[in-house]
Specification:
Layout lengths: L3 E6 L2 E6 L10 H15 L6 E6 L4 E3 L5 H8 L4 H18 L5 E5 L2 E3 L1 H6 L4 E4 L4 E3 L13 H7 L4 H8 L5 H7 L4 E2 L5 H11 L3 H6 L7 H12 L5 H9 L4 H11 L3 H16 L4 H18 L2 H10 L16 H7 L18 E5 L5 H10 L3 E5 L9 E3 L3 H5 L4 E4 L4 H11 L8 E4 L5 H13 L3 E4 L2 E2 L1 H7 L2 E7 L1 H14 E8 L3 H29 L4 H8 L7 H4 L23 H18 L4 H15 L11 H7 L4
Parallel strand pairs: 2-3, 3-5, 4-6, 5-7, 6-8, 7-9, 10-11, 10-13, 11-12, 13-14, 14-15, 17-18
Antiparallel strand pairs: 1-2, 15-17, 16-17
Helix pairs in contact: 1-3, 2-15, 3-14, 5-6, 5-13, 6-13, 13-16, 17-21, 19-20, 23-26, 23-27, 23-28, 26-27
Length: about 650
Amino acid sequence: MADIDIRITGRAGRITFSRPQALNAMSYEMCMAIDAAMRLWRDDDDVALVVIDATGDKAFCAGGDIAELYDTGTKGNYEYGRRFWRDEYRLNAFIAEYPKPVVSFMQGFTMGGGVGIGCHGSHRVVDDSSRIAMPECGIGLVPDVGGSLLLARAPGHLGEYLGLTTGRMAAGDAILAGFADHFVPRGTWADLIEMLEASGDAAHVASHALPAPPSALGEMQGDIDRHFSGGSLAAIRASLAGEDSDFTEKTRAALERNSPLSMACTIEMLRRLRAEDGTIRQALDLEYRFTWRAMEHGDFLEGIRAQIIDKDRNPQWQHAGGTVPDAAVRHMLAPLGADALTFEGEDRQMKIGFIGLGNMGAPMAANLARAGHEVTGFDMAEVSIEGVAMAASAAEAAKGAEVVITMLPNGQILRAVAAEIIPAMDKGAAFVDCSTVDVDSARAVADQAEAAGLLAVDAPVSGGVGGATAGTLTFMAGGSEAAFAKAAPLFDIMGQKAVHCGAAGAGQAAKICNNMILGATMIVTCEAFALADKLGLDRQKMFDVVSTSSGYSWTMNAYCPAPGVGPQSPADNDYKPGFAAELMLKDLRLSQQAAESADADTPMGALAQQLYTQFVEQEDGKGMDFSAMLPRFEKRHRG
C-alpha cells in the first residue's frame, strides 16, 4: 500500500506512514493493515519488537482521515463511521496490550488517531519538532483512541486542560503528561532504528535518550490545577471568569471555540476513569459510546463542516452559551447494549436470571439484554422488558443460569427468595444480590449459597434509578475473589465502577457506611442553606464559596438541594425523587442496626435516622427526594 510501508527488517517489524503530503493521516485501510501485520508478528518468534515511524518532517500522523466520515454521515450513513471507530479502537487496545515492545518515533504533529497508534506502545520517542495534541473537542468529538486514559492519568488536572483546550504539547510537555517517554534528537533516530532492527533489544532507546526539555505545561501547572479542578464545565468556566490574567484570557478563548457537549462529556469521562483506575478497554468503551452517537446526536458533523468543509470557523454548537444538561452527558455516555465495543475474548453470551424487576432491577436487566446476554426475569408484578424473557417463578428464572441477580426490598424477602432459588441453581453458578439489606441477611444467604456449591456476591448499588438506566451504577461487592471475577463483566455493563470490598457482607457494610455519611451530610447541607437564607446570604454565592473550599461535598457539588444552584438535581424538579427519603430512612435504619450489632457508637448516624424518621413518617417527606429536607428547614425555627 502506497500510504504505508509494512515489512520486517532484521528482528523488527517495521511500520512507516508514507503519505507526508496529507500529514500521514490514517485511512481505514491503513488502520486495518497495521492491525493485520501486528497480529502476524505477535506470534512470529523472529520478530522481537515493532518500530513505527513516518516519512516527512511535519507529522508522524496528524489524525484519522475524516473526509469519508463526513461524506457518509451527512448522507445518513452512520454505520461506516461506527465501523471505523470500532476497528480503530480495537487496534488501539491491541497496541496497548501488545506482548512485545512497540517503539514509536513521533516527529511533528501527532494528533487524534496518531495518538492511538504512537502513544500506547512501550517506548514512545519525541524530538524538538514534536507537537502532540487531542483536538477532538474542536470538531465535536471527545478525546478518543484511548487518549482519554492518557489524559486521566496525567498529573493533576492537565488532562482536563489538554482535552478541553485541545492544546499542543512539545516534547517536554508530552513526557510530563504521559504521552511520551524519551527525548531523542532527530539526528540520531536512523542509527537507533538500525540498532533496534539488528538487535531486537528495546533497551537501546533509553541509552540514546537525553533529559527531557523544560515543559511549559509544568510551569502552568498551578494555574491549570486551580482552575480545572471544579469537576464540571460550568465550574471551570466560573473559575476562569473569576480571574483576570493572561492565562485565563487565553484559556477562556480556547474553550469558547470548542463544543460544550464534547467538553462536558470529556470531563465526565476523565472523572470516571480516575475514579475506577481505568484500563485502556474501559476508556475505549466510554469513547465508543460517544462516537457511536456523535454523528446522529452530537456536534461532529457540524464541527467538521465548520473546520474542514466550509472553513468558516463558526460552528453552531449545541448548548452554546449555556449549561450542558446532565441528561445530555448521560445520554452520550450511556451503554450501547448489543452495539457495545467488544475486544478479543469478550463476545461470549451469558445466561442470566434476574429476580426483582422494579424501578432499579428493570433497567439493569434491560442493559444486560441489550449487551447481548440471554436474560430471563421474574417479578411478583406483571412487567414487560424488551429483550428479557419472563419466567413463571423465581426458581424457573434461576434454573440453568450462569449468574442469578436479585434486586429485592429487604433482607426478609431476600432470605425467602434465596431459599427458593438456591436449590434450583447449578453448582458453580453465581448468586449476585444487588439489594440493600442488613449485613446479617447478606452473610446468611452467602453461607447458604456457598454450601450449595455456588459463588456468592453481595453487591448493593449506588446511583439510583438514573444510574440504573444509564448504566452508571457503583457496585460495592462482598464475596470471594472468584465470585467477584465471575460477576465483574456484568458490573461493567450495568455500572461505571465496581469495588471488591472484601468477604461476604462487606458490600452491604460499605453501602451502609456510605449512605450513613450521605444522609448526615445532606442534612447539614440543607441546614446550611436555610441558615444562609436567614443571614441574608445569596444561595449562589454560598455555593460558589462552599463548592470550591473546605465545605466541598457530594451533596453540595453534585446533588445540591437548592433549586437553581449547581448542577441539575431533583431540587430543580420539585424534589421528585432521584433517591427517595423513605429509602434513605431504610438505609439509615440498617446502619443503626449494624452499629448496634457491632457495638459501634454512631451518634450522628442515629440523629440522622431520627430526623428522617420524623420527616418521612410525621411530616410530608414520603414520596419526596431525600434532599427535600431543605424546604423543611426553611419553615422551621430554632427550638
